[in-house]
Amino acid sequence: METIIYNLDQIGEAAQALRSGQLVAFPTETVYGLGADATNEEAVKKVYQAKGRPSDNPLIVHVASVAMVEKYAAEIPEKARQLMTAFWPGSLTIILKIKPGSLSKTVTGGLSTVAFRFPKCQPTLDLIEQAGVPMVGPSANTSGKPSPTTAQHVYHDLHGKIYGILDDGPTKVGVESTVLDMSTDHPVILRPGAVTKADIEGVIGSIDLNHHHVGKGEIPKAPGMKYKHYAPNAQVYIVDPEEDWANVMKWVEQQPFAVGVMAEDVILKQLTLPKNAQAFSLGNGVTDASARLFDGLRMYDDEKQVQAIVTQAFPAHDLGLAYMNRLNKSAGGQHFRDEFLK
Ligand code: TXA
Ligand code: MG
Q1: Which residues surround ligand 2, an ion (CB under 5 A)?
Q2: What domains are there in the chain, each with its CATH number?
Q3: pTM of the predicted model, to two decimals?
Q4: Contact at 8 Å (CB) between 44 and 36?
Q5: What is the helix (H) or strand (E) element at residue 116, kind and residue range?
Q6: Average of pLDDT values for 201-226?
Q7: What's the CA-to-centroid distance between 178 and ligand 1, angstroms?
Q8: Distance 60 CA to ligand 1 centre (A)
Q9: How many CA atoms lie within 13 A of 304 on its CB side?
Q10: 113 has binding-site annotation
Q11: Cβ(114) – ligand 1 distance below 6 Å
Q12: H or E segment to which residue 310 belongs
């Protein structure tokens, strides 16, 4: 199958393909998603196959109205409604109890809850409305790889395996949505994103944060948390804020292979890069860095001789918490400091 790239004039054709059970990747403000009609079990099954995704990892259901949520949620608690009013459309995914029998087990991974997301991306809201059905949408990458922030990233991972891609250029936020479990009395963030704990607490009061790595034998709240994530082929090392980048460059120079260097412009400008260093700019500040992180990690996968990547850390609060959560996973928790002291 030759994967079609749809431009924004072709939303109607993309919607028609979805309605007929095909997979169509779609843009959002966070990352690109892999879309299928959430009410068509055969179509949803194809999503897991195309991504190579374990079948117990549930999918987010993308909607274009609160009325669509009402069709599939058992109930919408008052606090969840307040969050929808405050942050939708936007990067907050809300988990609610499912209306029994309303969506297949393939969507929910057998859980009694379902995650809803109303993305801030008009072409995709139009796509859902024209298809007339909610759309499942995991990130449109091969399972385990960094999420896609351009249509080209999606094409790279999934061409030949999916029917089409709706191209709306690079995504703005670059890290996936905040996932908030509202299915119990105690709301808890399962994955940090651009909508922060403080943002949410400003609307509904105190909530919990539980996004830490799940150990062997533990049952994770968000099944996706137990899988390896965001991993490029090269080893990734976190460069902590207190690190002296001159030392990092000394280490780079000693390596017998090419090393990727991901840092802000202000840092890159001051450095004398050794010959085997391949720089990638994270721009200026944590907002830029979040938007660019996955693009950089993916770029090094195409530069086969790069065997290590040193990447700048940011303070782990607000958007920085989301950035560091993704960077930690792609680094498997490895810090440059530990490597350098060896
Ligand atoms: O920004 C995003 O959220 C992107 C775009 C495409 O919307 N989507 C995305 O989907 O990141 P995905 O499938 O890659 O990540 C969804 C996460 C997974 O870790 C999954 O386990 C968790 O949300 N999740 C989904 N439904 C859940 C549920 N009912 N209970 C707990 N966790 C759930
Ligand atoms: Mg994903």
Answers
A1: 139
A2: 4-226 (3.90.870.10), 235-341 (3.40.50.11030)
A3: 0.95
A4: yes
A5: strand 113-117
A6: 71
A7: 9
A8: 5
A9: 0
A10: yes
A11: yes
A12: strand 306-312
